[in-house]
Design a protein that fits this description.
The chain is α/β, with parallel strands linked by helices. About 35% of the residues lie in helices and about 15% in strands. It contains eleven helices and eleven strands. A hairpin with a 2-residue loop joins strand 9 and strand 10. Helix 1 crosses helix 5 and helix 5 crosses helix 11. The termini are close together. The site of phosphoric acid mono(formamide)ester has 9 residues, from helix 2. The site of phosphoric acid mono(formamide)ester (CP) has 9 residues, from helix 2.
Amino acid sequence: MAKSNLYGRDLITTQEWSKEEIIQTLELAEEMQKKRFSPEFSNVLNNRSFFMFFYNPSVRTRQSFEVAATELGGHGLFLEPKTMRLKTATSAGETVEDAANVMARYACGLGIRILEDKIADYGEGDALIREYAKYSEIPIVSMAHDKFHPCQGLADAMGYRKHLGKDLKGKTILHAWGHGALGRSHCSVQESMLICSRLGMNVRVAHPKGYSLDPEVVKWTKKNCSDNGMEFAVTNDVEEGYEGAEIVYSRNWMSEKAYHGGEFHKAEEVEKALKFTDWICDEKKMKLTNNGFFSHPMPVDRGHEVTDEVASGKRSIIIDIAENRLHVQKAVMALTMAG
Ligand code: CP
């Protein structure tokens, strides 16, 4: 592959890439899906290594990045920050500047996941990733942090293009809060709001009072929608928003009070969230949609965020979207790291 215009770029949120760059990535991912093991792509990262820092657990992200690196002829290395003597807010160790500079001499890119209980306040994960990006000469890719999950957003969009057509303009997506036992970060839903609004969709959000999303992300989403002549709406009504939607993205996220006193209060979050038993995506609510598809970044909290009937039903596209993680990450690595 020839060096792309995205060579050397970080991916912290798709909001920081142009619409053309997002489409370029989606088109390459679609081509890579069609020609999965073609020699055209099997040497793109020949002999190169991609480092992955996982502060938090993962199934899809770790597996799909490792497979992506292998299919491009390179290698993905799983690294646990706790084994690396890195400096943190509470312990002495190597600075981000030194670690980032050294790693750039070994690898072609660095992915980082940091969220939920691994930070003391909302925004700290984003700040850490941006500090790595400041010092590193190789691309930094968010593999999900407290604010954004760009690879998930690209995989979602690839799924919507497959099921609704490549032009998503005028289609409507509802992001519905789901009650649940996981106290999840805002990253997936915020990334979805941003990329869907960039691609011309009407964006709706429904959540109980106390579960507002990041005001800055809401502001950007509103502007993205208005730039495309589309609508953005937020409601605290559990059913409002389903009416006429083409995609329902049902997902739990933590409340506005999840972080206090310098830590994440997961037990409090779960206890509070489980009381909102009406906040579940079920067949009755899906009947209000325009024959809508069910979307979720996974892992799904079945019985809380969504019923089994919907999650395993004919209109569920969650497995397609999980597969897309592989294709979009191959495209991101090829475009930003192959030179
Ligand atoms: N959607 C997603 O990021 O899945 P994992 O947490 O399993 O990586």
